[in-house]
Amino acid sequence: MRQPFRLAPLAAVAVLLLAGFVPAQGADNPGKITVEFWDKWSGFEADAMQSVVDDFNKAQDKIFVRRLNVSRIEQKMMLATAGRVPPDIVNLWASNLTSYVQNNALLPLDKLAREAGVDESAYIPMFWQLCHQEGFLWALPLTPSVTALHWNKKMFREAGLDPEKPPRTLEELEEFNNILTKREPDGSLKQVGHLVQEPGWWMRDMTHLFGGSVWDGGSKLLLDEQPSRDFFAWIATYPQRFGGDAMNRLRGAFGNFASPQNPFFQGRVAMIMQGVWMDNFIRQYASPDFEYGVAPFPIAGAPAEAPATIADTDILVIPAGATHPREAMEFMAYVQTQPAMEKLCLAQKKFTPLREVSPDFIRNHPHPYIRTFIDLANSPNARPILALPTLTEYSNDLNNYVNLLMLGKITTDEARQTMQERQQKALDKKTARWNRAKAKLLAGWRSSL
Amino acid sequence: MTRGEKRELTAGLLFISPWLVGFLALSVYPILASCWFSLCDYSVLADPVYIGTENYSELWHDEVFWQALRNTLVFAAVSIPLSTALAIGLAVLLNQPVPGRGVFRTIFFLPSLVPAIALAILWQWMLNGPVGLVNNLLRQPLDLINRLAGTSLQPPDWLNDPSWAMWGLVITGLWGAGNAMVIYLAGLQEIPAELYEAAEMDGANSWQRFMHVTLPLLTPVIFFNVIMGLIGSLQTFAVPYILTNGGDGPGRSLLFLATYIYQSAFDYWNMGYASALALFLFVLILALTWIVVRFGEKRVHYAGR
Questions:
Q1: Distance between CA A126 and CA A309 in Å, rounded?
Q2: H helices of B96-237, where?
Q3: Distance separating alpha carbons of residues B249 and B254, to the nearest angstrom
């Protein structure tokens, strides 16, 4: 009789431990299936998404979507999927797709999307294309983005430039850059017209300004090709003109992006490459009299016939092994409807990935330059964001070599050639991994459709 | 074994079983799994594929690995002696019978309680080139030197200049010297007062007393702190990671082995390669600790021996 009592504390501990592993299914919404949604947004962007989630939860009585804000979402999704406990929906970036697809971490959505009535014809082609890999649909677009030149009109005026006339070619941008750059009496930089590294988020895609890309879309990096050579040569003009140390010191005083100390708001940098969200940050952090304009970012050579841009989109994916894929797709399809998408995009002050928008969407849109972004997204010169399987490695390497180049510690050819060699090796490794798994994975995905 | 002994053994094992389970599941298994993964191409998401010693051969030819290793060793070689000297110096000063000694001890110990992330963010601003507090303090004396000597010295751009970034990190690390200082203080109080009296009677001045009494008798504590400091500095991760906003620092000057392991595993999805790096770090720590123990212990003066 005494033995069971002795074991009772152990049993209690075991029960408590096990309880921790049991998912609390529908605990807060009895009778409904709970769909776990990992969202990367925070602040007002998260509020906008939550509002759409709430609408969906109210609109039907079978599914409850639970939105959870997750930082470093790419890594956490990777680990959760590897641990076979993924959420049902994740909000990622289109540039993440290749890595996840090649590692079989996502569910192909072709069949589910077709059944849910999601159709290609509804989308701006670029954003539909960004959701595809290897001929399969892996994601549905959320809020899209395209890059554009943002310029500080007050700084243009003070430098004697016409504040309504942004540069139309890269050569003109650099002329303006020289005019807008001012120094302190001690020779240090007071302000600059443009810096490649401010904010530097699209440096890996900037070869497109010279009419090329750094990747052939398959197994080859193209850093030896002329557009890449031109890109590195362009970067090298910065330390020559402004001095690497002076630029470094100027950049050292820049505050955080989402703060009043953002160098663009502070008048330290006059022209930057930015996306549609910038207006939100300007409203929130810049002084009320801050004047800015938005235009296509100029490219090298003659002005482009159609404006050039780098297109990206936030995406919704269903991880492989998700518990409720059908219910997840039901929510995703709801987000793709015009009213829900417009509500989300209006609240986040972005444009929609849908071809058709209601007349009120443009009329009521708070972004003064929303039309420019929509035109850019529809431009034949819009290029998809680089979706290399080695994207993070490539970006880290590029940042490092650009940094060394700016400090004059390496030549352009050394930087470019070393990167080509190192990154080609990294890509070869990922390509070999993909080639080993490809046939089996493709067959599996095909059979699931 | 008698029945009673068996029962005692069972009870003992049962009592330590939480630790045993934790040790097996969270230490032994990961180490063994790492050994296996280091011989595989493994992305975490897909099954590991055996590739022999390819990861080790890649490591040998990877210039970033060598840079991370060099940074790690340089940081350990610079920060351990400096932090040891500072901690001993502070402990000796705070061991003097002065009024408000307890308050001073608390003040010097407090910074070591600041969490690593908060510490890194704080120093990110302190070491900011144009607007940081450290450079504001340096600017005036440098201006004076420039005026007198006709030079054009400028305070360093600590975290953006590859030649200064490591020093920035070392200074940040010294902020936490209070922890070791407390251990040295305890060690100092263990030194018998009669040894100082005897030295004083023999005519030893304060420096001689410090060199011939304090330091020798403090060597067991120094030995312990140096080994812990060595292991800690070879594993340095959080502070440089935050200081560089998750990057490698200018010219990869703040890329350490632990950061490179993390990047390879979770940013680049090369868990196999990261495992090879981790095992290398494990062997490195083991080897350096062995060297310190092997050659350092002879110089340690244990009062009981």
A1: 11
A2: 101-109, 116-126, 133-149, 162-174, 178-189, 193-201, 206-209, 215-234
A3: 5
Write out the two tokens for A143.
Answer: 């809020």
ipTM over 0.95: no
Q: Say if CB B87 and CB B181 are below 8 A apart.
A: yes
Q: How does pLDDT run across A387-405, given as a tens digit for each residue?
A: 999 999 999 999 999 999 9
DSSP label at A208? G
> Looking at residue A14, what is its pLDDT?
63
Protein fold of B58-299: MetI-like fold (1.10.3720)
Q: Do A396 and B161 touch (CB under 8 A)?
A: no
Count of Cβ atoms closer than 10 Å to residue B8 Cβ = 12
Cα B211–chain centre separation: 26
In this prediction, residue B271 carries a pLDDT of: 95
Q: Residue B134: name the closest of B143, B125, B146, B121 by CA.
A: B125
What 3-state DSSP class applies to A140? strand
Determine how many CB atoms are found less than 10 A away from the CB of residue B292. Answer: 16
Which residues of chain B are within 8 Å of residue A440 when distances are taken between CB atoms? Answer: none
DSSP alpha helix (H) spans, B237-270? 238-243, 257-262
Q: Does the CB of A105 have a partner CB in chain B at under 8 Å?
A: yes
**Cβ-based contacts of B134 with chain A (< 8 Å):** none
Test A75 with B267 for CB contact under 8 angstroms: yes
Q: Which of A104, A393, A396 minimises the CB distance to B45?
A: A104
Domains of chain A in start order, with CATH, are: 31-146+313-383 (3.40.190.10), 148-310+386-431 (3.40.190.10)
Q: Domain residues of chain B, as ranges?
A: 58-299
Q: How far apart are CA A132 and CA A110, in angstroms?
A: 10
Of A250, A392, A432, the CB nearest to B268: A392
Task: Name the residue with higher pLDDT: A286 or A248.
Answer: A286
Over the stretch B130-181, which tens digit does the pLDDT of each residue have?
Answer: 788 999 999 899 999 989 988 888 888 888 888 899 999 999 999 888 999 9
CB atoms within 10 A of CB A170: 18
Q: Are A150 and A257 in contact (CB under 8 A)?
A: no
Percent of chain A whose predicted confidence (pLDDT) is above 70: 94
Measured in whole angstroms, how far is the alpha carbon of residue B244 from the centre of its chain?
18
**What average pLDDT does this structure show over A289-307?**
90
The average confidence (pLDDT) of chain B is 92
Alpha carbon distance B166, B249 (integer Å): 9
Mean pLDDT across B221-242: 93
Q: Give A157-212 pLDDT, tens digit per residue.
A: 999 999 999 999 999 999 999 999 999 988 889 999 999 999 999 999 999 999 99
pLDDT at A151 over 90: yes
Number of helices (H), then strands (E), in chain B: 15, 2
User: What pLDDT is recorded for position A1?
Assistant: 42
Q: Which residues lie across from A144 on neighbouring strands? A: A313
Task: Kindly determine whether residue B269 and residue A409, on different chains, have CB atoms separated by under 8 Å.
Answer: no
Per DSSP, what are the bridge partners of residue A308?
A381
Residue whose entry in the numeric block shows the structure tokens 């008698």: B2
Nearest by CB to B160, which of A99, A252, A426? A252
CA atoms within 13 Å, Cβ hemisphere of B225: 26
